[in-house]
Known about the structure:
Blueprint: H1 2-7, E1 19-21, H2 37-42, E2 47-52, E3 57-61, H3 65-80, H4 84-100, H5 103-115, H6 127-144, E4 149-156, E5 159-166, E6 171-174, H7 182-187
Antiparallel strand pairs: 1-3, 2-3, 4-5, 5-6
Helix pairs in contact: 3-6, 4-5
Amino acid sequence: YLIRLLAHTDENLDELTGKYYDPQEFVDYKASVEKPLPMIYQSGYLTIKDYKPRRGTFLLDFPNNEVKKGFVSLVASDYLKPKRESVNSWIQDVIDALEDGETEKLRKLFTSFLADIPYTMRRKEDERERERYFHYTFYLIFRLVSVYTVYTEKEQSEGRVDCIVETPDYIYIFEFKLDGTADEALRQ
């Protein structure tokens, strides 16, 4: 049920964790597409990590990396619906390309993977929402490959970067343009 609920939410799931919340924001057990946080918390995927008595707020985050990886895998398996037999091999190829700095190989891997997502899976009809869908898909993929630091919508002095991935040897910066060109993305 949680996965079906999350499939229809407009929340950015990567922005829900590691933040302080008033208890009224997460103790309500009613399922809501507009506010999935209580359901995620009540399902046990998030736990209280800290408390600020002056404000009466609680820090919610995944209890450990295993739960985090399990949650992301669960969401991604429904969200992406990949071909099961080839996923592990594909993930290993992505990790190898990232570690070796092979940007062209990485581009081809993502292009082929994203091209496999059927047109009917685009949940939103306006361009901004379609781009957000692919942005979120990309984020989920990197969380699955999560041996690296991943930032999404990282604010910089001249705007926001869609995605930054830091490996020990390389830093990758991604700008998403669903129907635009690579040159347009680079200019942005």
